[in-house]
Known about the structure:
Layout: H1 5-14, H2 30-36, H3 42-50, E1 54-56, E2 73-75, E3 78-79, E4 87-92, E5 123-124, E6 132-139, H4 142-149, E7 157-163, H5 171-176, E8 193-198, E9 201-206, H6 213-220, E10 225-233, E11 236-237, E12 246-248, H7 251-268
Parallel strand pairs: 6-10
Antiparallel strand pairs: 1-2, 2-3, 4-6, 4-12, 5-6, 7-9, 7-10, 8-9, 10-11
Helix pairs in contact: 2-3
The structure holds uracil (URA).
Amino acid sequence: MPPDESIMRLVARLLPAPHSGPLPLPPVSLARTLSKLGYGTRKETERALAARRVTTVHGVVLGDRDTAAHGDIRLDGEPLDPPQGSVVLLHKPVGYVCSTSDRPPLVYDLLPSRFPHRDPLMATVGRLDADTSGLLLLTDDGPLNHQLTSPRWHLPKCYDVSLAEPLGGDEAALFAAGTLMLQGESTPLLPATLEVIAPQRARVTIHEGRYHQVRRMFAAAGNHVTALQRVSFGPLALGDLPEGHWRVLTSDEVMQLRDAARAAKAAQR
Ligand code: URA
């Protein structure tokens, strides 16, 4: 006797669909993902899951092997920190140190408390002096961080500079020459550009990241920097992001950054 058609339909629904492509990856452990984002040890994040504190945006309780889009996951009702591979743009105020372990205040004090505990670390892309404000990037994408800070192909970085003395008029030529030697260094600086904004204010674009570079450039020109703010990094501008605030770069912005790094590298060849 042929099997009942409704039973056949039920069996077909329960059997996995025939597969032609690669096998799907097993779901990633949510406890592991949370732990890597700095939410606690693996044991602690397992406990958070067991306590039903991890849900979807709609309140459905998630288990360790459940899959959900990063943006849809909530821990205690709060959205998660940016996923791995993100780039963050911070408007660093004066006084904050680019370190995880120096004397506070640290730039990490302005970011989610999990950031210094992430694995990999959400590291600063280069540094700004404690006395410098402005655009600071952080990322846990190590290769991208390396590309953006490699001394061989630095992206242009633009600084607004306030000076103790009026500009003398010859700074632009001095910086553009590519021969300026800073004290204690053995190679001259790459050419940099200077745009005069006011008698005691200028915008300077450099392509390196030497220690206290802009301050030392003006010291070499017989002046003194009283305030320094980084206003752009490659294609990214600080814009009107308030001081002390941060935002995650969009995927378009990260792509622009990668393209600019590639272009800077190619230009060095
Ligand atoms: N040049 C400086 O002197 N300081 C900075 O923080 C960045 C560039």
